[in-house]
Amino acid sequence: MAEALPIVLVPGLTCSARLYAGQIPALWRFGPVMVADHTRDDSMAAIARRILAAAPPRFALAGLSMGGYIAFEIMRQAPEHVAKLALLDTGARAETPEQTERRKAPIALAKSGRYAQVPDIAFPLYVHRSRHNDTALKQLVRMMAQETGVEAFLRQQQAIISRPDSRPGLAAIKCPTLVLVGDGDEATPPELAREIAAAIAARHNRRLRAPFHARTAGASDCGPG
Predict the structure, then answer these.
(1) I need a surface site. Which of 19, 59, 78, 111 has the fewest CB within 10 A?
(2) Residue 54: what pLDDT?
């Protein structure tokens, strides 16, 4: 039997450990599972340092969307700790001015005491129209946003806005890597996944027939990023 390999899962923007509830029982069979805390810092570098301080010496790493941005930073800081890598519905490029402009509205809502409106506004943008009336899914997104909280949301947005371009370092990633994206992902479209996979020479590059941004909870990343 293969030796157990710890697994570190990094959620997306305003997502909590609930994002991976469907995967943890299956992954647990291969090694202990840790869901990283990405709520306490406002830069990718600081978030990665905190995760590495809490993580085992060597582990498999998976990140969804914002979690993928953090995974790139972990690979910059401590690639020797990562035995395997999974990049889910994410991109390696830096923030664009257009993306930052779109973030201003939810940030303003959060700062004005209307943070509870943020997940409802984001929901139809990141979930396929066939799931727009899925009340259970919408409630899950709301619950994760509530667990994240307004202050953490603002820190996460700042970290995303200031993230570096990870493309120059992709060729240095040598561990076995999975790049996964949904066919219908508009937030991080398949061409971004192909860009990552080509630069890493990823062992596995897969597209799922998924009409929304994330495949972990059956939901999207809980906000833009």
Answers:
(1) 111
(2) 98
Look at the alpha carbons of 168, 224, 175, 44 in this order and tell me if their dihedral is positive or negative: positive
Domains defined for the chain, CATH in brackets: 1-225 (3.40.50.1820)
The total of other beta-carbon atoms located within 10 Å of residue 200's CB is 22
Q: Are the CB atoms for 72 and 98 separated by under 8 Å? A: no
Q: Model-level pTM?
A: 0.90
